[in-house]
Amino acid sequence: MEPRLVAYVLPVFNESAGIVAFHHELVDATRSRPDLRFEFVYVDDGSSDTSLSELIGLRRADDRVTVVSLSRNHGHQVAVSAGLDLCGAADAVVVMDTDLQDPPAVSLRMLVTWEAGADVVYAQRRTRQDTWFKRTSASSFYWLLDQVSEVEIPRHVGDFRLMDRRVVAEVARYREHDRFLRGIVAQVGFRQEAILYDRAARTTGTSGYPIRSMLKLAASGLLGFSTTPLRLISRTGIAISLVSVGLAAYVFGVRVFDPDQAVPGWAFLGVGMFLLGGLQLVMMGVIGSYLGRVYVEAQDRPLYAIASCARGRGGRGDSAGSRVDELSLQPPGRQDPSIS
């Protein structure tokens, strides 16, 4: 009986300084499981450094390496989705970043839990060596998401996880463009279990998640898995209407029962108008965000474009379920058809 195939989906963006060290550590970790076949699917998300060249070198040295080069930077979530689309033949897929903050050895514990019957095994951070701002913002985001989300999304969990092939097939059916994979996997369901680990500090390169990207991901999570903001608009409108009725009754009563009493109103009226105007703009912004998502989905454009793809040994001969065709792989400025 042929050993089961485990694929690693590894998004890469400007990781040339540490990608080789990461691959060697990953290979060393997987050597302890000779009973399994492994494929390492690296997805270069439009890197501007020499990451793609480094990946090509890894593929030459290890025929289990698959390299996918996207046509431009599509973002981390789309890069992971492109890798998952390529892994329809794998029995299980591990998604992890390549900055060594998530130790490859943890994925072996995931394999044990998967073999015990779990369909999804996610790595839950016990500790994390990040800045105070990042720790605080992440905790605040997950608290807020827990309050408003219609799907239970585990706290202190990133995209580092293992998924059974059944889960991967279901996730592949979700093609929304504003992607929040943690929420999608939670939405899919199946038997999900957590393993705790300590997240290390980044030692090479810079984070691929600047504040702007973090805010965009947070918005995708909040808007994609909750209609609470829309309900809050209605509730806020009702509350303001009730306050307005009360104030109108007060003014009317003063006019009728104590007409000599002046009702101070210009300052209050001015502040009230600015307050209501600001609230209306905020509400329009929330509605606009939802409408924008609807507009993008209605266009039904492809999630990504692939500049090149070279399959490793693990992916050859059995591409069932794959959405990605094999194309020639060449880094910018190089011509080497021998590796296509």
TrEMBL record:
<dbReference type="GO" id="GO:0005886">
    <property type="term" value="C:plasma membrane"/>
</dbReference>
<keyword id="KW-0812">Transmembrane</keyword>
<keyword id="KW-0328">Glycosyltransferase</keyword>
<dbReference type="InterPro" id="IPR029044">
    <property type="entry name" value="Nucleotide-diphossugar_trans"/>
</dbReference>
<keyword id="KW-1133">Transmembrane helix</keyword>
<feature type="domain" description="Glycosyltransferase 2-like">
    <location>
        <begin position="9"/>
        <end position="170"/>
    </location>
</feature>
<comment type="similarity">
    <text>Belongs to the glycosyltransferase 2 family.</text>
</comment>
<keyword id="KW-0808">Transferase</keyword>
<feature type="region of interest" description="Disordered">
    <location>
        <begin position="312"/>
        <end position="340"/>
    </location>
</feature>
<dbReference type="Pfam" id="PF00535">
    <property type="entry name" value="Glycos_transf_2"/>
</dbReference>
<feature type="transmembrane region" description="Helical">
    <location>
        <begin position="265"/>
        <end position="291"/>
    </location>
</feature>
<dbReference type="InterPro" id="IPR050256">
    <property type="entry name" value="Glycosyltransferase_2"/>
</dbReference>
<keyword id="KW-0472">Membrane</keyword>
<dbReference type="InterPro" id="IPR001173">
    <property type="entry name" value="Glyco_trans_2-like"/>
</dbReference>
<protein>
    <submittedName>
        <fullName>Glycosyltransferase</fullName>
    </submittedName>
</protein>
<dbReference type="GO" id="GO:0016757">
    <property type="term" value="F:glycosyltransferase activity"/>
</dbReference>
<feature type="transmembrane region" description="Helical">
    <location>
        <begin position="232"/>
        <end position="253"/>
    </location>
</feature>
